[in-house]
Amino acid sequence: MTSDIDALENLVQQGIVIFVTSGLLFFGVIVIMAIKSPLLFLATMVVLPPVIISSRKFRRNSNDAYLVVRDRIGQTLSTLQESLAGIRVVQAFGREDEQFSRFVDHNQAQYEANVHAVRLSARYFPVVEFTNAAATAIIIGFGGLLVHWHRTSIGTVAAFVAVPGLPDRPHPAVQPAVQPGAAVRCGPQEDFRTARHRGGGGREAGAVDLPSGGELVVDGVSFAYLPGERDTVLSDVSIRVSAAERVALVGPTGAGKSTLAKLMARFYDPIEGSVSYGGVDLKDATFASVRRHIAVVPKKASCSTARFSTT
Fold it and tell me: pLDDT tens digits for 20-34?
């Protein structure tokens, strides 16, 4: 989140100003060119279709690429933070090599994601440069004919050559932040207030209160933090917690202990399977009753365990 928020901060501080300035400049240039010489303006528009096609393709591919980049950065930073915070446990159990290997793997994945994003840019921006050069050639060639035919002036041709290159590319500091990766990760991953739970009067429409007691059942739950992600954090997990029973979730860092606890408290909804309390699916329960019966209390611990109990 720290890295994602930094990217959005960069967008707010610099990107919006640059975006608005470039947009006004772009439309201002179009208006001026159309007024000064409609024929020369139409001739330069020949290069516009390739730019539009390549830009749409680049936007579609770069959206996914930058989303992966933000995810890989988060994995690398979280691995580093967890290793440093639990350094005593890591040393006590001789897990230095394993933690180092995890960090190297995540760092390599981040590197590969960045390389893929750079390759997309390397394919797109030469198209922009080529069309800019082609537009200049058309302006000079066709503009020379118009001057020869006394349909325009040399000054107008010179102005056409000077202005098209101004708004042809985004600012490098803005490009990564404009992509939706950071915004998607900082925003809500999924709106768990489904249509069933939207209503008035302080009560969700169609939802029911959880019973006063019962078992907390996790049945075949799978979960991924990002929509459409192939690598799930949890896959086909089932667990049953009886009333007044205490259960400890034990495993290595990143195994999904905290994620499972959050699913059991309905901080997230599973992509497959269900979580129920007293026979009632948490998706069908009022939020007030869920919060009244199920709670997660975060605690900084020096061991890789998560504890969960029901009342």
Answer: 887 888 888 888 888
Contact in structure between 8 and 189 (CB atoms under 8 Å): no
pLDDT band at 301 (very low <50, low <70, confident <90, very high): very low
pTM above 0.90, yes or no: no
Co-location of 182 and 209 in the same domain: no
Q: Report the helix count and the strand count for the chain, using DSSP H and E.
A: 11, 6
Closest CA to 237 of 246, 226, 252, 224: 224
CA 173 → CA 10, 54, 217, 276, distances in Å? 8, 21, 48, 47
Q: Does residue 232 contact residue 223 with C-beta atoms inside 8 Å?
A: yes
Query: What is the residue range of 136's domain?
Result: 2-186
Q: How does the average pLDDT of the chain come out, rounded?
A: 79
- Residue 111, pLDDT > 90, answer yes
Give residue 201's pLDDT band: very low, low, confident or very high (50, 70, 90).
very low
Strand order of the β-sheet with 234-241 is 234-241, 216-223, 272-277, 280-281
Q: Distance between CA atoms of 77 and 281, rounded to whole angstroms?
A: 35
Q: Which string of b and e fits 70-103 if b means at least 16 CB within 10 Å?
A: bbbbbbbeebeebbeebeeebeeeebeeebeebb
Is 75:110 a contact under the CB 8 Å cutoff?
Answer: yes
pLDDT reported for residue 304: 42
Tokens standing for residue 3: 């890295």
Q: How far apart are CA 181 and CA 3, in angstroms?
A: 11
Q: Does 186 score more than 50 pLDDT?
A: yes
Rounded to whole angstroms, the Cα distance separating 101 from 103 reads 5
255 plus 140 within the same structural domain = no
Q: What is the CATH number of the domain that holds 147?
A: 1.20.1560.10
Same domain, 173 and 304: no
In a domain, 240, yes or no: yes
